[in-house]
Queue: 2 jobs
Job 1
Amino acid sequence: MDDSKSHVEHSHGYGIYILVWMALMTLTAITVAVAGINFGALTITTALVIAAIKSYLVLQIFMHLRIEQKVFRIFVFVAVLFFVITIVLLFTDYSFM
Amino acid sequence: MSNDALAIKKNGSEPTYLEYDGKGRGIKSWIFSTDHKRIGILYLVSLITFFIVGVTFGFLMRLELIAPGRTIMDAQTYNSIFTLHGVIMIFLFVIPGLPAVFGNFFLPIMIGAKDVAFPRINLLSWWLFAFGGFLAVLSILLPGGPADTGWTFYVPYSVRTGTNVMLALFAAFVLGFSSILTGLNFVTTVHRLRAPGMSWFKLPLFIWSLYATAWVQVLATPIIGITLLLVAVERWLGVGLFDPALGGDPVLYQHLFWIYSHPAVYIMILPAMGVISEIIPVFSRRTIFGYKFIAFSSIAIALFGSLVWAHHMFTVGMSDTGQFIFSLLTFLVAIPSAIKVFNWTATLYKGSIELAPPMLFALGFVFLFSIGGFTGLFQGTLSVNIQIHDTSFIVAHFHYVMFGGTGFGIFAALHYWLPKMFGRMYNLKAAKTAFWILLVGFNTLFFPMFIMGWLGMPRRYYDYLPEYHIYHLISTIGSWILIIGLTIMFTNLIRSLRRGKVIQEKNIWGGETLEWSVDTPPILENFVDIPTVTESPYEYKMNEYSETEKEEVK
Amino acid sequence: MSSQEHAAAHVHRDDVGSRMGMWLFLFTEMLLFGGMFFLYSIYRYMNPEAFHVAAKELNTLIGAFNTAILLTSSLTMALSITAIQKNNKSLSLFFQFLTILLALGFMVNKYFEWTAKFHHGIYPGGEELLSRSPGEVLFFGLYYVMTGLHGLHVVIGAVIIAVMMRFTAKGIITQTNYVKLETAGLYWHLVDIIWIFLFPLFYLIT
């Protein structure tokens, strides 16, 4: 019952994918274009923020996270959180050397 | 008799998993079976084999240390022996340990499922385990000699030594992959295959602990995978990522190694805590005290346990801030562990305690794990850590946790569930005798290590000053007592599989979880009809009398 | 034959469960690369100048071109699933084929990029590289290990999609049962996401 319903929900039209693809290509163009400009410390932040937006789009639309059960989004959150906490703790050592 | 004929036996009952061979015959019906119960048994046999090998290496190590100077082997052999003891015990025994054997066998039954979510991946995971074990054995036998780096494979030595480190690294990588697949399977199974009515807070606590463990397996294991792979790449191509001569940082290797290997300690201990949470209510005839606290403390341990890894590295030149933060976090992880111990003792309080063998081992666990846990706090304290870092104090500590904890947890599980798995009962008296000998042997072996470590005896040393002789001597004698205990225990259990009293009753110990509602031994797909769960797993009627009394009142 | 017997023993089918298993596997892949991102960030933090200098030597144009290729391949992969959902088998096969072609294009580019660097002696243990500063050695070490492992994933992904094409052609993947294609797609998108981060970290942040 639950599964058959998810079949119906589990479809995107062609259109939205092409839109997302165009957004991804635009973001790539932007990140390449601004790479030449020196924002100082912000350079790396800009590049990573754009990469994060791109991944978000891929996760939500291409990987169907948006129409998946809630528990999948919690899973992704836990996995990303684990990664982020680990890298932060790693830097508590290295940035105070 | 063909299997089709067996599918429904003459008397109309379903075949047990031991009778139904599937397509194959003999050994093939086991090593190609996707039945979670058969896979559990495959792991059981493999694990006990590796355990015996590991014990043998440990015994040899202790024998060498019985007196200062050379006793039975040279220093290089000793280095290899302690490496093998560590690698085999960690990667081939305690890490797969309870989840692979009892998790595989009982997780589906305890949540009311016919199998795990991905039975074929489950089988693949055992094959990877067997392959990894084979590679580890190969690294011992091939020319070049077994790895001599310790189980930690620290760079730069692991990059330079001429022993078969490559094979050992690859073995650990494959074993990690096997562990990941088990974890992935368990998480999906718990989410998708719970029986109707089996809500999250009706899950047995063993399942909660396996669930938390499975997450650690999925998230932390890949990090050791890539780290070991990079050491292999380093040996092969000399990329320089961990080589100080090329700008690499060996301390960063240690970070990456412990980012996995500290949580791995919780992969080892959490399922054992789950087993204890099953056994204690059954043999005290009381509802577990603080169910939700125990359940959430498993998750909390998995979470906090992932944040404390650098306490293995306080002396390698970390920053002061880093040391401070990791020390603080280390103290935090003691809280959920203590919650569990408090809840177990509270469950015992005013219980009707029956000292059957599983219960004895469970109580042994609580006692030994508490010692191990408390001494862990010593080491989490920065100043004390400087004194005892890399001494035999550490060796004693983690053996109290890993052997006294997980090891006794596994023994408890064996005595608790083996009769259910095979339908035969072991000799109760022999089991109790074995327990007491093990307890005495264990403490005689490892307690002196606390003292000599405190006095400054370094770990992994081949030779020592005469002032440590007495402790080493006592410790070695302890290893003999321990081995006598192990021999009695395993002989008793193995003997019972053929000659033990046949039991057919479903509920041997009076447990309330689902595995006690199925046949002994369980049938092919566990349940004829998937049960509907209405009660919590530990609903002990206070006593039968009050039940009947209620009836009378009506 | 064995799968038939298996199916008989476990008639149970759970698409959500299959996808969940795949997601969990993707987390392990993510953290496999995560371990290397840890290394990258720490080494970058310790050698900012050298990383700056070394990153300039990578060809941003090839990198950007490869990014475009992978993003497009992600699109075709997603479209192939929609096609099968709409029961358009040949269109789905076409999109899967296109995805494989793009993957190959990515690898060809990568090949030229790597060989060019090799010619200049910039490879682990290469003379030119060893004459540089330790930070640059680390940068290129990470570059080869990370893009190499990513390339391996691209190849594995292409092989998996090829198998999916076979399944689609044989009617194992259908309008009502396409979870295999979905999970293959998930894997492919993750390979894309990893590249989304590798690209700026190696080619752009100069």
Job 2
Amino acid sequence: MKVEYRIYMGIGIFVLLVTTVYFFWAKEYGGVTMLFGTAGLGIMPALYFGWWRKRMDPRPEDSETATLAESKGAIGAFPSNTIWPFVLGMGAFLSGLSLVFGEWTLVIGGALLIFAAASVTLESRRGGVI
Amino acid sequence: MTIAEERNDLSNEEGGHEHEHGGPRGIYLWLTSTDHKVIGKSYMYTALIFMLIAGAMAMLIRAQLTGPNNHIVSQQTYNELFTIHGSMMLYLFAGPFAFGGFANYILPLQIGAPDMAFPRLNALSYWLFVTGGITMLSGFFTSGGAAAFGWVSYAPLSSYSNAPGAGPDLWIVAIALTGFSGIFTAVNLITTAFYLRAPGLTMFRLPIFTWNMIVTGMLILIAFPILTAAMIMLYADRHFGAHFFTVSGGGSPVMWQNLFWFFGHPEVYILALPYFGIVSEVIPVFSRKPIFGYKGLVFATLAIAGLSTGVWAHHMFTTGTVLLPFFSALSLLIAVPTGVKVFTWIATMWGGDIEFKTPMLFVIGFLFTFVMGGVTGVMLAAPPIDFAVHDTYFVVAHFHQVLAGTAVFGGFSGFFYWYPKLTGRMYRESLGKLQFWMAFVGFSLTFFPQYLIGLRGMPRRVPVYLVSDHVTFLNQLSTVGAFLTGASFIVWLINMWISWKKPVAAGDNPWDGHTLEWATSSPPPHHNFVSLPPIRSARPLWDANHPEHADYKNQGHGSVPREREEQK
Amino acid sequence: MSNFKSVRERRVGRKGLLLAFFAVVLSSCSSTFGGYRGATTQGQSEASLYQGFMITGIVVAGVTFLGLFYVLVRYRRRKGTNRIPSQRHSNLPVEVIYTVIPVLIVIGLFVFTVRSENKITQVSSNPNVSVDITAFQWGWRFTYSNGVSIVSQGANYPQLVLPANETTKVTLVSQDVVHGFYVPAFNFSRYALPGVTNYFDLTPTSTGTYVGRCSALCGLYHGEMLFSVRVVTPSQFQSWLTQQKAA
């Protein structure tokens, strides 16, 4: 995790430096706000990775000498086929269209969104039988 | 290593992880798959369809400009055409083709992962992308027409009184949908690259393409939220009586430009970096050499990402509201890491054994147009020069050479390079080369005259010009080039058709590739790998296939313990 | 013997190439590379900056392309061969050189940029003439300090009249959306923004009539939002101004 932590921290600190220069030179606060937020978007994930780095066991993918046998257990759970992301997408689509065509699409879209979001959550919890 | 299958569907398990055997097929596969390979391919083909549609719009634009006072399309239609052409090419082609298509398909393979970290989220981002595209195009079918305020939609031209109707709203919704799609994909890419790498594949052994996708993901997470926020503000201004960008209510139209370009300039690198990654994969393979200066290249990419957040106002030099020397200095400075990349690529080829297959030809085309666009980009970083040519065809030529050159030449280089992996079939080399030469000649013929057109003072986004501008002939030349480029895509479609109808098996590793995606079958099986070679350098497959020239025997990217390797 | 000769010939060839290269560079010093020479002092400053950038660009792109073509020709795969080249993948001095040289070039360019930029953006405190320019959909209004006002009317493009060799201070605003005041022959454009007032100086150096246009997309008739600039001698300018005032 060291490299992951450092690249995010590096970007965050660099943008923070740019922000400081811009703050004192340009005195334009819209840009300062955006730059400051951007620095945060670098530092925030960096702190997360840094926090985990201290607490996790060394990973085989961070070791230059690891062999394939060293990775133990499941890599992760991967679903194969599910219709719910599609339904979720359609729900988001119709909800988005309500901004243009009025509320009636929001009724259908919102219903789809809630239904699909609930279904996809349940599916992943119980191991995903469609 | 084991992969936990969530779904206990026997048909999938008993198929022995055979590719798509027993699983759903056709449209149902397209709708339900969470396999990164299926989603990646869907992304690619959808993005390419959007490119062909937006390209057809470009042909109409060019046809209108063959004469000073043509009436091929009306003024209103012309404005709609260039708005949607730009929006589609940027939001629906160049970006998603790379970080939705190539990255989705290739990145998990390159790091030896079975899938993306969040497969369902991945499927969702594809559907948001498709529906975003449909939303954007549907603007043409509304009574008021599509959005007509340019892809930058400068306030207050995009306010409700200046742009009434459903078209602009559809545009806003489309951008929001594709924006969320991009954010989800970025989260997915970064998490995958950080958490699903194969053992031994440290960060500084990642292929350059994967590195570039990580940095692209970081930039997306920086830039897209601002775009989405700006879209919400714009919508609130239009419909809820907010005054973010209206002077009368105490808002500031210039704030829109700040917000938009704070997204917009990182966006330029979001579009370019993935293709730089592709180029960094193709050049070493077809030169049979490792990439030159690996760490330098990685740091150049990171430097571009860092600097790109501080250059947004170089799009606003002529507003008279920005600190010129600050933005000019950072914009000039960003040319350095970009230049380092170009020199790195040339140094990689130096001393190599260069084979001019279609992907390599496209890379050379990319290098040529990109250097030309880069040199004019440095000029535009100087405010005085920008004053002279701002919003003229000089700028149009510049960003097409940089962006379209990168997305088309870099993109097709990657497409032909990975086509055997994607389909298991080979394309026809002669047709690929023909496509390259048509695209290259056409592209140069389109955009070199546009530099002169711009220097003579023709602004962009105008459907008419004066005879006394002396740009008629140059415009006609440009149009001829555009149609030649357009015809090159027909050659590509023929190539795909022949390759589909009369398949020639490609084999697992037709190019003598270096990275892990070539270590599996073509196309790869469900969950990608049956076995992996040991990873002892950035080029595990090269090491396995050429043990006498393996990277870990040379001075490595890091210290390499030889004893352990021999034990294996 | 023949070997020796070929080496010499190659050397001569290289020298010739080098000479030709410098000849092109030197002759291009007087060229404007497709741009306008600039009909104002500010525009001329831009033109010389552009010239410098262009020459630098030609040299940089030239060196890059020469390197690229050399590599492509020299290291192409010959038919029937199957060699594995040296797998060298780093050379620190080379990497440092190709990073440091661009940095130096960029610093040099920046110095010239700032000099030129300061000249162009300078606004004089006591100009000879002041004009208020207002942009609107889709036309222009030029108002002189004595009240004379020229406005777009229908298809008639308005004309901005300026005295030669005198400094005119322009105050630029927009009435509705973003417009761009752009005179290609002056090598200058500036946005007209709602809610923001922009100031700049124009010092025309030669008499003549130039076309001007809107550079920023401003709606349906953006392409037809033209005007013209007529530069006359100061005495002609004064008589024109009084004549307009009387009319």
